[in-house]
Amino acid sequence: MVSIVPLWILFLTFLSALLLGSLPQCRAMSFYDLEAVNIDGYRVKLSAYKGKVTLVVNVASKCGLTDRTYKELVSVRESYARRGFEVLAFPCNQFHDQEPDSNADIKGFARSYNVTFPLFAKTTVKRPMCTHDPSANSLLCGPTSEECCAFNNQIYEYLMSISNKPVEWNFAKFLIGRDGGLIKRYQPVEGPRTFTREIERALASADTGDGDGDGDGDGDGDGDGDEDDMSHGSSDGGSNPTTESFSDEM
Ligand SMILES: *[C@@H]1O[C@H](CO)[C@@H](O)[C@H](O)[C@H]1NC(C)=O
C-alpha cells in the first residue's frame, strides 16, 4: 500500500502534465494566434505584434476618406510607434470598388503617403450575407462574385466573431489592446486623430480588461444608417473619384 501511493502521485503528475500540455489547443483562438498574407505575398504571424497596441483598418485608395485617413494614420502611427503602437492595414475592394488596383499598385500608392506600417494583401472584410445589402454593393458583390463569397483572411473572420456588426465601409477601425483584446471600434469617418487619447490609454495599460470592449462604435447606434454616414464622409473628403472607378471591369 505504502509503495503504491508514490505511483499514483507519479501518474497524476503525468496526467496533469498531459492536460496542461494540450491546453493551448483547447483555448479559444486569440488575435495573436492568427496570420495573414502581407502585400508582398508572405505569410505573417500576428504574434509578431504581441504586446503592442494595434489599429486594424481596411483601406482603399479611391475613397473620399482616403487622403485624410492615410495622412492621419501615418502621423498617429509616427507619434506612438515608439511606445508600441502599430497600424495593420488591409486593402479591400468590397466597398464601391474603391480599391480596384493590384497589390503592387496599392503599395506604391501607400508609399506616396510615406506609409511605414504593415500593409497586407488585398482581402475581404465582409461576410457573404452582407452582399445582399440593398446598398450599392449589391452590384459588385452578387452571389457569384468570387471576391465576396467568403472571408479569405483569418483576421476579419476573427474580428467579426468577436464584434457585433459588419465592417461599414472603407477605413473601419478596430483598436486592439496589448493583450489582443478588442478595445473599441471606430467608424470610417472617425479619423485616428480623434481618438489618440484612447490610443494613449491603451498604450499605458498592460491589459485592456476585455470586459469593457463591446466592439461597438460609440456613435448614434444606428446600425443601419451607415450608408448615410458614408455619403456624408465622402463629401467631407473633397473630390471623390468613386464614379470613375466604376468603369473598371469587375
Ligand atoms: C513624404 O516624405 C517626403 C520626404 O520627407 C516629403 O517630402 C513628403 O511631403 C511626404 N509626403 C507626404 C504625403 O506626407
TrEMBL record:
> Sorted alphabetically, which keywords does the UniProt record give?
Oxidoreductase, Peroxidase, Signal
By sequence similarity, the record places it as follows:
Belongs to the glutathione peroxidase family.
Q: Where is the composition biased (Polar residues)?
A: 240-250
Its recorded name reads Glutathione peroxidase
Task: Please provide an example of a Pfam family that matches this protein in its UniProt record.
Answer: GSHPx
List the source organism.
Chara braunii
Indicate whether Oxidoreductase appears among the record's keywords: yes
Q: Which PROSITE patterns match?
A: GLUTATHIONE_PEROXID_2, GLUTATHIONE_PEROXID_3
- GO terms of biological process kind: response to oxidative stress
Compositionally biased, Acidic residues: which spans? 209-229
Q: Which Gene3D superfamilies does its entry note?
A: Glutaredoxin
Q: Does the keyword Oxidoreductase apply?
A: yes
